[in-house]
Design goal:
four-stranded mixed beta sheet; alpha/beta; 6 helices; 205 residues; elongated
């Protein structure tokens, strides 16, 4: 009997999620739609990253331009995180011209300032900060020596770059694949960035 109910329960959850997304998306709110594959019977649905953009009620031309750039960057980054990992986070994004670049906090907030940083690369990088890269006690414990010591992320970078590869850490960032600069971005590097962040979480980030 329970086996027969499982598909219906999943369908009900999917309908509720779709309706919730439809209600949330409206004036003043931008949100990425999580992309998930149908769950098989008995499988727990993966978590997902969702985000909202705080908007002024009567935005200036400058704010409208910034909102468009931020929305494009965040939609691309969140879609990549949700396609490549099962990480979950609820993120609030703000446009703050006083921020020289962009920043992310473990409390789930991201601020974008400078136009040149309103890119998918920056959004991916800042999402990692909201998840704990450079901002959590796990980061201090596993990355405080200048090299990431967690087994899973270490094994992954060796898989990508060879047996001598390691994840270096410093200043709240990691490399390779930390996407710390715009010239580091590529489709491969972006996917590997997300995979490494997910492996860091499994390590105890």
């Amino acid at each position: 009997m329970s086996a027969q109910r499982a598909p219906m329960a999943w369908r009900n959850k999917a309908v509720v999620a779709a309706l919730t997304a439809a209600v949330l998306v409206g004036p003043g709110i931008a949100q990425a739609t999580p992309q998930t594959a149908p769950a098989s019977q008995g499988r727990v649905a993966a978590a997902s990253i969702t985000w909202t953009l705080e908007r002024a009620s009567n935005p200036t031309a400058d704010q409208r331009t910034a909102y468009d750039l931020i929305t494009k960057a965040m939609n691309a980054a969140v879609a990549r995180y949700n396609n490549v990992s099962d990480l979950g986070k609820t993120i609030t994004v703000r446009y703050d011209p006083g921020v020289p670049t962009a920043d992310g906090n473990i409390n789930g907030t991201i601020r974008f300032g400078n136009r040149s940083y309103m890119t998918e690369r920056t959004a991916l990088h800042e999402i990692a900060h909201t998840i704990g890269v450079g901002t959590s006690s796990g980061w201090s414990r596993l990355g405080g020596s200048g090299t990431w010591t967690g087994a899973q992320a270490t094994a992954l970078v060796k898989q990508f770059d060879g047996s001598g590869a390691k994840l270096s850490t410093g200043g709240g960032h990691f490399w390779p694949y930390g996407l710390n600069y715009e010239n580091e971005f590529s489709t491969t590097a972006a996917d590997r960035h997300v995979q490494i962040v997910a492996a860091m979480v499994r390590d105890g980030l």
